[in-house]
Design a protein that fits this description.
Elements: E1 2-10, E2 13-21, E3 50-55, H1 79-86, E4 88-92, E5 100-104, H2 106-115, E6 120-127, E7 132-141, E8 145-146, E9 149-157, E10 160-166, E11 179-181, E12 184-188, E13 204-213, E14 219-220, H3 222-229, H4 231-257
């Protein structure tokens, strides 16, 4: 089992993609589609191209700002034009049926907070067989604080994306200092909006898991690991892995800078 950390920068936006992968010797990713607005039939071990779009108030995602109407698609005008002008769009490629953590770094959180006056929402999207599949818009930052993480299950049918399903925590375990936003706990994190914030003091992440079948009808089962570990413990697992990697790099660096005396 190996852990791969990929840094992606799109439109000045930083995302860290941490994925726990089982590498098959000689396997080549067969998905050559890098546009989330194009159909991409996939197999296990392929990667899928998914877009994540960030903008201000959640009503922006709806036609005429009416939350009772259909959600607008980032793949179609007028939302595509609006995102180009005032939003942030990043593209990432998680590997099919591997637990993945999409982690937005602190600098990007500060940028989002300043750009949208501390009110930020997001939407995930990718192309299915005949239409763009959207993960319903979610607010994750307001003037009080920020939702630390979301979890979504990505469902496939014979290799084609069928659905995104958010797994909300329903605010059942919010601390006394927390509030509820879109069925998720919001932690007070004023420090995350300060330009002097240390990169380790706040973070936002999306846990990804997969269900359904690939294009050879092989079942995808990483969603079961989510149900066993739980959203918060999964986030902690990845954070520990990342910290262990950083500690290992620092240790190796110190050993190189200060080698032991010979003899």
């Amino acid at each position: 089992m190996a852990t791969l950390e990929v840094f992606i920068r799109v439109l000045g936006f930083h995302i860290i993609l941490i994925t726990q992968q089982k590498f098959i010797q000689g396997y080549v990713d067969q998905n050559t589609i890098y546009n989330p607005c194009k159909s991409q039939p996939t197999l296990i071990q392929d990667a899928i191209t998914i877009g994540v779009a960030f903008i201000g108030d959640i009503t922006t995602w709806y036609n005429n700002s009416d939350v009772r109407s259909n959600v607008l698609s980032p793949c179609e005008a007028p939302l595509a034009d609006k995102l180009t002008n005032v939003g942030f769009i990043s593209i990432f490629r998680p590997q099919i049926d591997q637990l993945t953590l999409l982690n937005v770094d602190n600098g990007s959180l500060i940028s989002l907070s300043h750009t949208f006056a501390q009110t930020v929402s997001l939407l995930l999207y990718a192309q299915g067989m005949n239409t763009t599949i959207l993960a319903g818009p979610r607010s994750f930052m307001n003037s009080y604080g920020m939702v630390p993480s979301f979890t979504t299950i990505i469902d496939f049918q014979n290799g084609f994306l069928k659905n995104f399903t958010w797994k909300d925590d329903e605010c059942l375990d919010c601390a006394q200092s927390s509030m509820c936003l879109d069925n998720n706990c919001v932690d007070p994190q004023d420090r995350c909006t300060a330009d002097s914030t240390n990169s380790s003091s706040c973070h936002f992440s999306i846990n990804l898991a997969f269900s359904g079948t690939d294009r050879k009808k092989k079942p995808l089962q990483s969603w079961y690991q989510i149900s066993r570990t739980g959203r918060f413990s999964l986030t902690n697992i990845y954070q520990k892995v990342k910290n262990d990697i950083i500690i290992s790099i620092i240790t190796v660096g110190n050993a190189i800078d200060s080698p032991p005396p010979l003899g």
